[in-house]
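Chapter summary example: a protein plus iron/sulfur cluster.
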Amino acid sequence: MAAAERTSADDPQSDPAKAALALRAGQIIERLARVIENPRSELNYDSLFQLLVAVMLSAQTTDKRVNLVTPALFQAAPDPASMAALGHEGIFGFIKTVGLAGSKSRNLAATSAIIHEKYQDQVPSGFEDLVALPGVGSKTARVVMNVGFGIPVIAVDTHIRRVAMRLELTKSDSPDRISDELAGIIPDRYLLHAHHYLLLHGRYTCAARNPACGACCLNDLCPSRDANQISRANPSGS
Ligand code: SF4
């Protein structure tokens, strides 16, 4: 499934186990919605094109590091035409402190040229069009669709994958499958913001090394809370 398209087979009500999972997923997102007041991207940008650039730069890099390099980059090249004209060497000069700067600068130059020439400077909103752009994978495409176009899809990054697995909302390992599974169980009314609720929860509470289970608003709904609390209290397991 390219993005969050529901079919009758996805209807949680047709499967009791899935209905129970959907009920729990709804409770989880509802709790997160109460404590996360601002479910927004932490990347800085002023246009859809700049959002796409920032998201491409954020692969395997923190949003904070991306936000350090984009002001100068966007001042020099605010739109697809000027970014393409800057070329990969010019772009590299602005982003060299970001991980994978070499491949990212080449992809940004190529993608900017395509958006300028093929899409008349407009970032496309379709999943297939986005993933056809150099350096744009399914996660980046979904982030742009969700944040930029308000399309209710869930982009699964390392934080969302970890949170979904700890909460046992999925047994899958593949981000694309997790994305489709979450879209199948999270209530429609929460789908647009579910991406940021889960991402921000993973970034600030359900961290990879030291999840704050004791302070977590999902503690009573989480099958992993004891494992995480025990492993922190007694890391040797003895
Ligand atoms: S209880 Fe712990 S493992 Fe479960 S979601 Fe909260 S922080 Fe994560």
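Key point: The chain has two domains: 23-37+155-232, 48-149.
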